[in-house]
User: What shape does this take?
Amino acid sequence: MPIRIRLAVLSSLVTMFVVAGGGYVFVRSLTNGLSTSLDTGLRSRAAALTQTVTDTAGGIDFQDPGNIKLLRPQDAVAQVLDPRGQVVESSQEAGPKPLVTRPVQIRSRSNPIFATVKRGADRFRVLTASAHRNDGPWTVVVAGSLEAADDAVVQVRTALIVGGGIAVVLAGLGAWLLATAALRPVERMRRQAADISEHHSGSGLQVPKTRDEIAALGTTMNELLDRLQGALARQRGFVADAGHELRTPLAILRTELELADNPARSQRELRDAIKNAAIETDRLSRLAEELLFLARSDDNESDLRFDTAPLVPLVTRSFEAFRSRADEQSVAMRLVGDPTIVAPLDASHFRRAIDNLLDNALRYSSHGTNVEIRVRSEGHDVLVEVLDEGPGFPEDFLPHAFERFRRADDARARHDGGSGLGLAIVETVARQHGGHARVFNRTGGGAGVSIRIPASKFALR
Assistant: This one.
């Protein structure tokens, strides 16, 4: 059900309950007020008539035409009853029969009694009181018609029903119109969002200048669209770069296989072709593994398993794995670190980052230079640095060092098998561990890359 209809129905229901409750209270108050006003008049009339009956100490000869009448002309409905309950005098409206029963007459001798009686089609408010005389307790009965009060209550009730019904309809209509006006920007933004396609993002949603919740929603939606479009652009760039990187080794591999298939090739040339094909296959395998790692990291599918462990032994394993390569290049490697330093790590992912740092350092290190690995504590963090004495990073490369497929020396990196993903993987691993990575050029020459991570698992973000 649309929101505007739900709001209209809810507003109508609330208005109906409010009108019904308020109308009930008002009618009750009006009825009580009219009844109280009528009771006050009846008390005054009963008091005057009781006083008249009480003051007549001797017998009352109602047959004597000269006797003063007990009832005045304004006493429209009144009766005087003797101690036996017989009607002594009665107004024309009251009739010859007692208005109240004998038990009521007896009970009224202690306290006046109010009652509502119906005679024919009319209702009357009746007050029964006692007048004490020497010959016994007499009873005075006065009554007032409730016709005027009933008519007033009926008119008020009718007005409330009609007016309340109109109020309910107007409340529902007003809520529907208000909701329609309030949701019009939302509907416009919905249509604009529906028109945004994967390849045509447009200029975003038109945000109303109302500075309210709807404007805040539109702003948030535009920010979300910007993030999604940015992620989509990065994904497209990632796919394009991956395809570009895969094209070169695949082309080389195809060429080597075609040459190997040539019957005119010698056995040595065939071995060289197979060797080159194996190198390109290894490069493809490594590139595919790196791409898969980054893709899983982007989708938060990396299966990280943190365990607080010493950091130096983990770095030592990477150090030993690259020692033979360093010896072949006549590069001296040195590891400096406190064996007692521990940190929450995923060993396999952190080892991948260290391997990439050492691979980069050895790739750009010349014969006779040094590569140093430092592991140290700094405040509440653990810092791992890999320093070399190579040519360093170009200044224009430093701001983009962690971008994927970005190389400091594109031609040399391709020749050495670099994919441009090593530093991107380092930065991803550092971020997974709640830290960050940094690249810099050393003052005396060479480059450095550092990974800073929290020393406590409670600091992981």
Notes: The chain has three domains: 3-152, 213-296, 304-459.
